[in-house]
């Protein structure tokens, strides 16, 4: 029987694959670690920790994919040293066996309750925004306040030219992210909803929340349930920039606020502050919640682009792995520079873009 939260079933299965899948071969931990190292450095102690009968550690999903690939084909052990074939070299039958093994190992992984929140388990070669292909993903945005919708054309549902998307906040971030998530999760059902239209089933999917506490009720609700030292200070009116408040261990507080400037009697956004968070969904421990939230819309777009922009997403994902690789929940407050009205994608490998990280004292 698989006990939720117990990693021993996964550990036993991994050990059984190595020892019993091809018992006449006699694969050692050292030989398997060498094969896996072709994809990502793997040590014998690390592999041993995944198979431990007393205190097993849970490997990330990307490592389970390596197990599935290796044991999908006898060709893995046809020559020494044993090798991990690239998936594109597998035959149709071998690919089917790989998918069967990956589904089995993923189910065992989920039974541990880890939820796939860790950055090193969030997608492997497919990138940060890959989720297990079998599960729904819901992107949540706010609906613009009624007074704003009243000033926009085509936002009145009684009009013939009504367009529902004109009523959405953070529309540029939604379009950027929806297309990307669909592309890297081709077998998943990917939905987008306004916070006010979420069903009880939506709340227990993988959740991606765009926008902050002022308009996005889902962001407000989830942040209330998450234990972290970061809070958003709302913008009470259009002249109020707000910010993110960080609670220090000694009881002090720091406020990180956007920068506005310019001339000709008006202020323009020069630098926004945005919050990125990834953790286990508090409403379903086997799913994740991700928050991309700027004080302004361009901050939300900027933090989305950290992990979608082809020029920066690989290095930013690598930074998350290096910095938070063993954490189930983590977040970054980031600067988002705005130049001539255009969002500049943050580069988290550069300290100038990072304002605060949680948990602290790691890496």
Average residue-wise pLDDT = 86
- Kindly name the structural category: alpha+beta
Low-confidence stretches: none
Q: What's the oligomerization state? A: single chain
Overall structural domain count: 2
Beta-strand segment tally: 12
What is the number of helices?
Answer: 10
Shape: elongated
Fraction of residues in β-strands: 15-25%
The biggest sheet, with number of strands, parallel, antiparallel or mixed sense and barrel status, is:
9 strands, mixed
N- to C-terminal distance:
37 Å
Report the C-alpha radius of gyration, rounded: 23 Å
Order of helices and strands: HHHHHEHHEEHEEEEEEHHEEE
Range of helix content? 25-40%
Organism: Saccharothrix yanglingensis
Protein name: HTH cro/C1-type domain-containing protein
Characteristics:
single chain; 2 domains; nine-stranded mixed sheet; 12 strands; HTH cro/C1-type domain-containing protein
Quick synopsis:
This protein is of the alpha+beta class.
Structure report:
It comes from Saccharothrix yanglingensis. With 363 residues, the chain is of the alpha+beta class. The chain is 29% helix and 20% strand. It contains ten helices and twelve strands. It starts with 7 loop residues before the first helix and ends in a 5-residue tail after the last strand. The strands form two sheets. Strands 1, 2, 3, 7, 8, 9, 10, 11 and 12 form a nine-stranded mixed β-sheet that branches. The protein has a three-stranded antiparallel β-sheet with strand order 4-5-6, with no helix packed on it. It is elongated and about 75 Å long. α4 (61-70) runs antiparallel to α5 (92-111) and α7 runs parallel beside α9. The longest helix has 20 residues, at 92-111.
């Amino acid at each position: 029987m698989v006990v939720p939260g117990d990693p021993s079933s996964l550990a036993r299965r991994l050990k059984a694959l190595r020892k019993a899948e091809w018992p006449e071969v006699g694969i050692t931990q050292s030989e398997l670690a060498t094969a896996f190292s072709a994809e990502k450095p793997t040590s014998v102690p690390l592999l041993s920790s995944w198979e431990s009968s007393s205190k097993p550690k849970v490997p990330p999903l990307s490592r389970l994919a390596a197990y599935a690939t290796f044991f999908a084909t006898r060709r893995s052990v046809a020559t020494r040293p044993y090798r991990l074939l690239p998936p594109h070299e597998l035959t149709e039958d071998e690919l089917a066996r790989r998918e069967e093994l990956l589904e089995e190992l993923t189910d065992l992984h989920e039974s541990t309750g880890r939820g796939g929140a860790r950055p090193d388990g969030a997608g492997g070669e497919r990138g940060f925004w890959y989720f297990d292909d079998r599960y729904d993903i819901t992107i949540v945005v706010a609906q613009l306040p009624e007074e704003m919708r009243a000033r926009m054309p085509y936002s009145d549902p009684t009009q013939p030219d009504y367009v529902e998307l004109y009523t959405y906040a953070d529309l540029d971030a939604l379009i950027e992210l929806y297309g990307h998530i669909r592309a890297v999760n081709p077998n998943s059902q990917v939905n987008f909803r306004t916070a006010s239209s979420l069903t009880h089933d939506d709340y227990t999917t993988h959740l991606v929340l765009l926008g902050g506490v002022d308009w996005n009720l889902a962001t407000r609700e989830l942040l209330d349930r998450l234990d972290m030292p970061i809070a958003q200070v709302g913008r009470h009116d259009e002249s109020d920039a707000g910010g993110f408040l960080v609670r220090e261990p000694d009881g002090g507080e720091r406020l990180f606020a956007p920068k506005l400037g310019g001339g000709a009697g008006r202020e323009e956004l020069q630098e926004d502050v945005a919050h990125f968070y990834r953790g286990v969904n508090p409403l379903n421990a086997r799913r994740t919640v991700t928050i991309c939230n700027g004080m302004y819309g361009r901050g939300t777009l900027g933090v989305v682009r950290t992990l979608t922009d082809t020029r920066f997403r690989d290095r930013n994902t690598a930074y998350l792995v290096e910095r938070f690789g063993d954490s189930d929940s983590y977040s970054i407050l980031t600067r988002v520079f705005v130049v001539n009205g255009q969002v500049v994608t943050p580069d988290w490998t550069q300290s100038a873009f990072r304002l605060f990280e949680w948990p602290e004292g790691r890496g």
